[in-house]
Amino acid sequence: MSLLPTPAWFVGCGNMAGAMVEGWRSAGVDLSSAVAIRPSGREVEGVRTVRTLAEAGPAPRLVVLGFKPQQLDDVAPELGRWITSRTVIVSILAGVEASSLRARFPNAAAIVRAIPNLPVAVRRGVVGLYSDDADGPLQQQLWQAFSALGFAPWLSSEAELAAIGSVAGAGPAYVARFIAALTKAAQGRGLSEELALTVARETVLGTAWMAAASGESMDELARRVASPRGTTEAGLAVLDREGVLDGLIDVTIQAAGRRAAELAAEARPGRQVDSGQSLP
Ligand SMILES: NC(=O)c1ccc[n+]([C@@H]2O[C@H](COP(=O)([O-])OP(=O)(O)OC[C@H]3O[C@@H](n4cnc5c(N)ncnc54)[C@H](OP(=O)(O)O)[C@@H]3O)[C@@H](O)[C@H]2O)c1
């Protein structure tokens, strides 16, 4: 199955772009003319891997930017020499706006921003898509390609993309913390670490799965678990007290959003980027 414009270059292929490759491979997408370019030369399974752009081969029709936002100005000048009016650029760089990318790659056919999350590796990801200039057929082609990795909505503004990035892009880390907290609570009540982790993980997976299957609201779902004056109700009273959980999640998302705004500002043309900073 060939869903991607080819040749496709993955410029930077670490955790996130690597997860996309893994998802596409398990979906049976043909990656035989794809190439991963990463300075370490570490092999990306199923894709020819090289260290430099010069070794990548014929000029790309698709370029996936998979490095850190702070590396944009290191990579763009040389990469720009390979970009033609037939090249589509898909950037997964958190926070970096389409106009900042267009300024670096003025002759690209289209600039697309994609904000994926790590579960794309198992084809249960969320990928927000946004472009100022992709036409209908390209949007459809990319929607098909990214839908192989999970839920992949096209969005009408970069503000919506940022919202998806702060909830879904970063979300697996927050959910992982929640599962870890459930695990610790189960261990505290005498379960072995392995059993506690499995119980916590399966509870989150089963709840999300059931909610997706039934389409019921989260309030309804919680009500079905919590019988009046029962044990769950006593627990929910703690989580709900003065909106403590809602407030905690809100400040968490706000903090990530502030960092995304900083990254966006740093990547605007003419800004000096501190390449020592790392992403959250
Ligand atoms: N992680 C997430 O959940 C997530 C979610 C949404 C968006 N993103 C975005 O995904 C991007 C990558 O994040 P990540 O977590 O995958 O980081 P990562 O694992 O550190 O991967 C970064 C990649 O960039 C490569 N690289 C470094 N310098 C380069 C250069 N000069 N030219 C070409 N490639 C270079 C690295 O090469 P080596 O492999 O050789 O070191 C590595 O493959 C970021 O822009 C981030 O905003 C990440």
Task: Using brief descriptors, characterize the structure shown.
binds NADP nicotinamide-adenine-dinucleotide phosphate; 280 residues; two-stranded parallel ribbon; alpha/beta; seven-stranded mixed β-sheet; disordered C terminus; 9 strands
Outline the fold blueprint.
Blueprint: E1 8-11, H1 15-26, E2 34-37, E3 48-50, E4 62-65, H2 72-80, E5 88-91, H3 98-104, E6 110-115, E7 125-126, E8 128-131, H4 136-147, E9 150-151, H5 158-169, H6 171-188, H7 193-214, H8 218-225, H9 231-240, H10 244-267
Parallel strand pairs: 1-2, 1-4, 2-3, 4-5, 5-6, 7-9
Antiparallel strand pairs: 6-8
Helix pairs in contact: 5-10, 6-7
Could you characterize what this model shows?
There is one protein chain. The protein has 280 residues and is of the alpha/beta class. It has helices at residues 15-26, 72-80, 98-104, 136-147, 158-169, 171-188, 193-214, 218-225, 231-240, 244-267; strands spanning 8-11, 34-37, 48-50, 62-65, 88-91, 110-115, 125-126, 128-131, 150-151. The strands form two sheets. Strands 3-2-1-4-5-6-8 form a seven-stranded mixed β-sheet, covered by helices on one side. A two-stranded parallel sheet has the order 7-9. Helix 5 crosses helix 10. It is elongated, with a radius of gyration of 21 Å. 32% of the residues are buried. The site of NADP nicotinamide-adenine-dinucleotide phosphate has 28 residues, from helix 1 and helix 2. NADP nicotinamide-adenine-dinucleotide phosphate binds next to helix 1 and helix 2.
Quick structural overview:
With 280 residues, this protein is of the alpha/beta class. The protein has ten helices and nine strands. The protein is elongated, with a radius of gyration of 21 Å.
